[in-house]
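Form 12-C: Joint structure prediction
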Amino acid sequence: MWSSLIKYHRPATMNQCLRLLSKHLPRTVPMAGGTWLVAQHDPQVEAVVDLSALNLAFIKQSARQIRLGAMVTLQALIESPSIQLLANGLLRDASFNDASGAIRNVATLGGTIAVGNSFSEVCLVLLALDAQIAIRSPNVRVIPLLDLFTDRAVNLPPGSIITEIIIPLPKTRVGSRITKVSLTPLSKPIVNAVALVSRVGHHCRLARIALGGVTEYPIRLPKIEWMIFNQKIDAALYDRVAEAVPGVISLSQLTEYQREMAGIVVARALQAAWEQCGKE
Amino acid sequence: MEVNESEIQFHIREDCVIEKKIDQSSPRPMDEYIGKSYPRVDGYEKVTGQAKFVDDMNLGRVLHARVVRSTQAHARIIRLDIQNVRQLPGVRAVITGDHCPKRIGHALADQYPLARDKVRYWGEPVAVIVADSLNIADAATELVNIEYDPLPVVLHPRQAVHPDAPLIHEELPNYYHDPLIHSIEGTNIAHHYRLIRGNVEKAYSEAHLIVENEYWVPWIAHVQIEPHGCVAQWDGEMLSIWTSSQSPFFVRDIIAHMLDISPSRVRVHVPYVGGGFGGKSDVTIEPLLAIVAHAIPGTPIQLTLTREEMFFGTLVGRGVWGKVKHAVDTQGKLLAEEAELYYGSGGYADYSVWISQGGGHNSTGPYYIPNLNLNSYCVYTNTPPTGAYRGYGHPEVHWMVERQMDQIAHQLGIDPVEFRQKNLLGPGMVNSLGQVMKDYFGQPNLCLKTVQDTLGKDRVPTQAGRVRGQGIACFMKSPVMRSNAQSGAILRFNEDGSVTLFTGAIEIGQGVSTILTQIAAQTLAMPPEMVHCSTEVDTQYSPYEWQTVASHTTWAVGNAVHLAALDALNQIKASAAIIFGIPEIELETDNARVFPRGQEKLAISYAQIGVGYRRSDGTAVNPPVVGRGSFVPLGLTHPDPNTGQGNLAASWTFGCQGVDLEVDPESGQISVLRLISALDAGRIINPETARGQVEGAMVMALGASLLEKLHFDPSGKILNDNLVDYRIPLSVDTPAMEVYFLETLDASGPYGARGIGEHGIVAIPPAIANALSQALEVDFHEIPITPEMVLEAFASQKKNSGTPTPYADAGQSGNTHD
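Section 2 - Result
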């Protein structure tokens, strides 16, 4: 029972929405799907602003990008033809893995990003796809998703909301894979990784690696990406990557097992992505 | 091993031997309704959402209760301020320990329903708030101010028995206790059970090999889908309680004693229960509701625990640390066992003292061991109280013993299956308690062979880069029960010839209503559709039942139902004999009809006789038929005060379980491919229901083996009190499962049946660890076994041996990449 909640709003316009969110009292927060927010039972929250009437549940594709409204549900992503074709269905798979069916029908893409669970495969995949997000406060800003996870307090201050996610379409054929280590196939990952690569011959031309479960928010591994870029990909490189990853991530609060597994999941994701790239 | 009866130290008294054979006479062929997967009688109600659980009770206007819980695991209560709560509009009452001056408990009265002076675990009830709405009650809990003086916290049984351990119950010697409870003054030991046989020291001195290890089984949660719920109403004369319980008569007894009123003035209703697993067999939230209802007469008061409270507000399971030492001779025969078992009781021990005793005498596993020195201690810890959990003492000791068996076999260089075959109990042999195993207790060796054969076939190929392992573990299981655990049944005929069956057995999802329906139908020679098994138990009207626990319901209540049906059948025949003017022995019954032998066309339906036959001239023949049956196991005894032996168990069931798994040696991730069980549980009344019970238990064991563990912070707070962080297996985690039933008819069970509810959980954890041992040559001594533990153990093993054995030895040890 969420006993502190005294107000519920469902504005029809963005201006109304932002005006409600700007109130200091009662303490007001935005609510997308609500699956995370309601479960928190946060006694500090006294009012919610439901974003569901703002027409933000769209999926639009152009030649260069896919634009996703923040209120698109994870299930809608799974069912979208555009998303199924994007990077071999990478975002579709991540949406499926991130939540159970009942949650997916309600949980939104914007909410998933705003929560930014370190092990969220959706967040990892969007990072690997170089996604950008549009944020509305009184102004509109478009920033790389990575910036949100790097400095969340600055980039998503109280009173602002995520309205849109923009995913640039890969210019070449890519291979991609999500890998994880977890207690069971559907349980929360201990660590997980996404690799997205393209190739020319035996050499890697595009390499994006995202890693989850090791810091508060998902991260990219630029040093590892540079290590792979333009390199000949072979078994020796996978081993070098597995060894190098623990050295480039924050070591604080990580167990030896998490550090070691971070290397393993990145190397496995890279290998699987590379093999997929070669097959198609 | 056959033994000379004169060699055994404990002799079964002839008058105590459980040889009371139930009349298994049946008017129908045995396979008419028995041994058939008859559809569940509660299925339609449940899948259509019509089944009523406690939270569905519509009792009109109710008040809502919320529990204020301790935020300390061990502390003295310095001040409890409830003034602010009373001023909140809508709050009707605040009940504290001052309202509960009496300690409650059956075996050991060590707990006040609400803490007084001291708290002994994080989450212990300190006050109950009753309000007009749940929102108000919730808000009011925030207004209670409690000041504590923290005391050192004990979170492990090993810590609890240390000589310098803080005392959790300073007044332990003064508590009321059952004469069989042996607490030790000045310690945290609530109960010490000892079983001795032969000369252990001599056996160790003559042994070829001695293997000793320590083991740990952590505390785990039951995670019933239906949380504990209770409604109580006091009308000035009668206290009515609706509760989600496996033991309504036990609840009645405890509460009547607590309130100093007659049990006849406490009426306990139990509708459908959404999962028990032992966690609802003890009294938990009912006394709180009884006290508040007594304080606020008239209006029903309702409490349903939150999912989070289910982890610390009721009971948890297991929490056992053990040291086990075995001696064997050169032939691979077990010579002796010494065991020290420490059962962490949590802050209160009333519900775990008997678990520690059951675990103690079962700690030999299903093996003949001539020399024994088994010491089992129930020790207080500052954790939520430990209670019954599916398996009741058996899984934890089988975890230890079955791991020992594999390690001994490995050190002897004998195949683990062959080693077990040399030592398994069987008919005519004597178990730890001194009981001679009957031939109808089943065939453990055949169970073992069944699992071994099954593991050897239908193997799916091993994935590239994975290492394969297979493991086996045997088990035995007895119902750990009161020596006079009673069951009753009443059958009442209806106007259409159908019957309504009343028992005190609780339908907790195990399918007991279906089983009892089939037994009644078989005995009465009527279609199961004509038997209506009452699924709500009401202590005012239902026959007495000890508890729905211990896998004994099919056996004990089944016997009572069978006897009630025979009683009813005799009454039917008595009437028919008068009507036809022939002796009863010349009557036949079929399809709810009775007729002279061979003259089916003269048949009279049960509908004509069941409520009282009336002749054409209007005169009555006999009154309505009411069948009565009751059952109690005869010959059970208390343990001998000197040896700990005795007739403590009414029946035994043997079985074996196998696991086929593969491991990723880079990540330590374990993929269980197959779970296999072979059990000899007597006649299987309903194969589909029985298979469901065993499969459900195996999945539960899978969770305990690989996933489940309550994590405490140093202050004693549970860190994973939710279903995200406390992960149980889901359908996607469920591997292929195979269940085999060997049906040696039990001479004392209804149609030869015994219970089967818990058995599938007992030996899966050691079978998994044994499979990992085969795959990686590493030994685990605690569960759950996480990928991290696998990798650490593997790294340590590599370091010690200097070679990465899983790949190198794969071909030699049988862990081939198929």
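Section 3 - Comments
Confidence is low (pLDDT under 50) at residues 1-28, 803-818 of chain B. Residues 447 and 678 of chain B are 5 Å apart (CA to CA).
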